[in-house]
Amino acid sequence: KIKGVFDATPLTRSLRQEVEGFDIMICLMELIDNAVQATIERPEPCISIRINFDKVDDHGHRTGEPAELVIEDNGKGMSQRQLANYFRVSFTTSRIPAIDRDSQPGVLPLDAFINSHLNRFGRGSASVVYFGDVVEIESFQAPRDPKQPSRAYMVKCDYEALLKSNSWDLEMYEKDQEVVEDDLNGWTIIRISKLLPDKERVLRDLASLEHLAKRLEQVYHWFIYGFPEWLWDKMPAELTRNSRRPRGGLTIEIVMSSGADVLFQACLSPESVSKGPGGSGGGSDDFGHNSDLQAVLREWERLASANQAMELCVTCMRYLPPGHPSPGGTGLPLKLDGKGPSKASAGKPLPGPGRGRGGTAGGSGGPGGRGRGHDIGGMQPRPPGRAPKSGGCVEVVELLEDDTDIDTRQKDCVCDFVLIWLFFPYRQCLRTKPLGDSGEELFVFPFWSGKDMIKSKLHGQFPEIYKTAVALARMDQETQNHAHKLDDPGRLVALLLVSPDALAHQHKSDFEGKAYELFCKSGPSAGPSYRPSSDEQPRLMTYVWPKDIEESAADGSGEAI
């Protein structure tokens, strides 16, 4: 053995190298994701993004301090230990939300698909040094025991100095902090200075900031505005029964100033969008109307309010990994946590794509079930532990600092997809479907856990199930005269909701894994040629709406289902 010090400590430059080729939006979202989760218990969650150039003192004189990016939230804050480990890549206290698919057969309720537990992989440290060389993170978490000292902590990383010394020495500070109000019993402030020149240019550019704000409005749409009531009322009863409509409430403020002058300001909040036809709220100049998603939802709401016959088409699918029994099969599949068996409920696969609204009767067709919704607003802090906050389908838990599942997460697990198809008819030979902000055709808005996956290829194409639907329409004598309408991408938009337990890229801007690949490439088999896959293969099952079963039985074609 050779004497000496040999270790595998990563070089300090590796931290920035992990993200240096990324879009600025991805690294900003990483920091906002953490803030969204931290503010889950706040009745008025707020995230502030401030860009300060040419700072001045109280007398209006320039201080000469470097430009600064500040991200602040009114969340629960971080403990001293969490803050001390912030710059360790992959350090996380996150856990994938547990989804109860065993409580009832059928589809998952809609509120299971919008969950603000977005923290996953512990990549915040790489995202902060993406912007600049000096990072200060200050956080306060009020002690649960009032007899304990109340202190805020700050960790400082001079990344420029670390690069020169190739060391990981950080500075840690503490100060007494008085809790003035209950809603100020926690917060976090990230200050990034000595901004890198290319990042500073983007943050100084007004057009870039406006584009950035529009994208943020779309990415966190469900957390800001909630699920629209008019859209909720049109969804199949199987998806909304025993489910609580997500109401949003998040505010994201963006301000860029130079000296004492505010050069750019945007407030993304529930008040920044009107309530639609006949409603009250913000006017047409409100900032929130500018995203592609807002344009699509507002136009379809307008069309549906003028034509009560317009309905949604909703397709629900579930991915089953190899070894998981098919609906109606035998055996006890492992639960998602891998700790024991769970029962699989009976059901049948659908040989064609999903059709419209289902009936109100309970239906089979999925290997798991649906539970009650959960309330994520206005909760009081509770002692650490694993007790669920409410008896809902998605379990919201307080975690011990070491209580994370990052080392035991399955790479291929059950997950669910809901496709909400919005059809836009032509009026007087003119299309009603909006184009994208840059004039491009809009296809799918893909959401994972309620967050828009901006790098997903589905933004520019429909999944394979769409082609199957067009083929089926051309084969059916009753629909073939209208198949050309379905085949026209200028008439259709899809909202894709994917459950929080689906696999996502480590920087949460795209999906990955076999489930996503199968969803994009595979469409349900059509006609009598359908043959069920064996349990040794990955499968994508489509839910059979009770209404479809009733109609098939009535016309004597029930054997096809």
TrEMBL record:
Any matching Pfam family: HATPase_c_3
GO biological process per UniProt: double-strand break repair
Sequence ranges of Gly residues compositional bias: 353-370
InterPro entries: HATPase_C_sf (IPR036890), SMCHD1 (IPR038892)
Chain intervals for the UniProt region annotation (Disordered): 327-390
Gene3D superfamilies per the UniProt record, alphabetical: Histidine kinase-like ATPase, C-terminal domain (3.30.565.10)
Highest taxon above the source species: Eukaryota
Protein known as: Histidine kinase/HSP90-like ATPase domain-containing protein
Species of origin: Volvox africanus
